[in-house]
Amino acid sequence: MAKKMLRALALIIVPFLASILIRIIYLTNKKNFYSPDDIGSEPTIFACWHGELLMLPFVYLRYRKTLHVKALISSHFDGMLISKTINYFGIDTISGSTNRNATRVLMQGIKALKEGYDIGITPDGPKGPRHEVADGIIAMAQKAKVKIVLVEIKPTKFWQFNSWDKFIIPKPFGTLNFYSTLPIDVSSMDMIEAKNLVKEGLKKHEI
Known about the structure:
Layout: H1 2-28, E1 30-34, E2 44-47, H2 56-63, E3 69-73, H3 77-87, E4 92-95, H4 102-114, E5 118-121, H5 136-144, E6 147-155, E7 158-160, E8 168-170, E9 175-180, H6 191-201
Parallel strand pairs: 1-9, 2-5, 2-6, 3-4, 3-5
Antiparallel strand pairs: 6-9, 7-8
């Protein structure tokens, strides 16, 4: 009972504080965007590695005046914390992953894309292996007939966790380097070719 109460309290307090911290980090850093000026208005999948997802909302907000997006987030407790945190940025979520409850999550993602939502996804999430692309992102893009924007977020100063994804938290008063691609089309590729393209695109500016 005590554990449940602590978790319930954490789900109220932690996301609110985390959303403030993320905004402070963003505001106190210099920003460089190495990105196309426009990616079009069609529903799009935005992809970044799990360890770099903290600042992903700011890339999305650069392209969309009106938020119409859902992110695929793990249904585990840490995923619930992330989900409630990004809700403060106007981002809705689909609970689950392409590894767990894969079919349900895939169908929900395809449905959302066909309804006009963008989708945010970490191709190596929620539990890795780190920097390995799961099938889900490719299947979703091909079945929904949408393109993928690859996003890398590289701070010059950061803390790095000793977790499976080597999760990065940028430090204040550094520089945030945002890299994103034009939408890429994987519709005519086989699974291996498409996964390799995504993987290579997300590792171009590795720290």
